[in-house]
User: Fold these one by one.
Assistant:
Number 1:
Amino acid sequence: DAKTTQPNSMESNEEEPVHLPCNHSTISGTDYIHWYRQLPSQGPEYVIHGLTSNVNNRMASLAIAEDRKSSTLILHRATLRDAAVYYCILSPSGNTGKLIFGQGTTLQVKP
Amino acid sequence: DAGITQSPRYKITETGRQVTLMCHQTWSHSYMFWYRQDLGHGLRLIYYSAAADITDKGEVPDGYVVSRSKTENFPLTLESATRSQTSVYFCASRVVLAPPNEQFFGPGTRLTVL
């Protein structure tokens, strides 16, 4: 399974944009890039996913590098509720849906 | 409300005892998963199931047993609990359709083995 590398922690101010980076230099052509987040004392929740093109949804945007070796999760206006551990995960298409979680990035949001 | 539930939410047991953690989902999702999360770490896959009566091992299956006689239920059994199995256990499910692999997670069961 291809691996991802994320910073251990990041800080942001409330209502400012946050860019969470993820490196995945060994990504294969069929790997989807997923982002999940885990709020304190809760199970993970899906944030966004993409394959090649940038993606937007109501929660966030996902910017994928042209060579697909890195990606960035963008929270456009961080709120205190966005404080969580963010996981960048690669998952091949057509597989069982197994997700291999790394350590993730702990995001702190300051008021 | 439809969703994925886990029971119990908290459990304290002793070394050597058998413990069963329950997971129930109301979506009729084909795939179900069990993960464990140790303090300060990411989740690790224990077992997963593609459908009723089909199960397979994940990253850390030793010491655990699963069954899936009905689509909606996926119990996880620790046959003889050990202290190293103290952890938070999450169940998840997803549809069998093509990507994306969005999984829906339960609220977790916090298990302490004394």
Note: Chain A has a mean pLDDT of 91.
Number 2:
Amino acid sequence: SQQGEEDPQALSIQEGENATMNCSYKTSINNLQWYRQNSGRGLVHLILIRSNEREKHSGRLRVTLDTSKKSSSLLITASRAADTASYFCATPYTGANSKLTFGKGITLSVRP
Amino acid sequence: EAGVTQSPTHLIKTRGQQATLRCSPISGHTSVYWYQQALGLGLQFLLWYDEGEERNRGNFPPRFSGRQFPNYSSELNVNALELEDSALYLCASSLYSGVRDEQFFGPGTRLTVL
């Protein structure tokens, strides 16, 4: 089963608006990562937030993490048409069966 | 600095054949990960190699196998191909072993099984 689940599944906004995407996970984590995927291509790492951090910024991106609610949000401010892509949250299982698990992704469409 | 490279870009096979996919990690990265992205199923973790050893594998049958070479490049082999193996196969590498840090992805190999 998926460790991370994104919400909503699809989001359509106008250029210049803000886009908020959410991710919920099930087990304790030491970090949570957000990735972007342009159509049919490889993933690009956007930001990593560690479990002892509550908020992190990178350019127009703002990520929050609430470990008590096991949730994270990704905010893209002043969106651009080039932000149109799929966005994934990824959470790690650590230990002997260490792996990174991805949600099914959010499809963001930014209309010019 | 060159990114993660994968070859071939596209691969078309028929059911029952074998497919070999290749990945070269970023220079200095020793961990290589393979993922399958089938339509509607999201990214599914396949295999993790580090320092030439298989460290973990996902919930895939044994006909999915691979290896990591001394130069840290990796190969994914899929035997007895089935139609549902059609997917984008993504390779990623990381500087540190495990999942403590970000992974850098290649552009993927699109495998089509007819």
Note: The two ends of chain B are 37 Å apart (CA to CA).
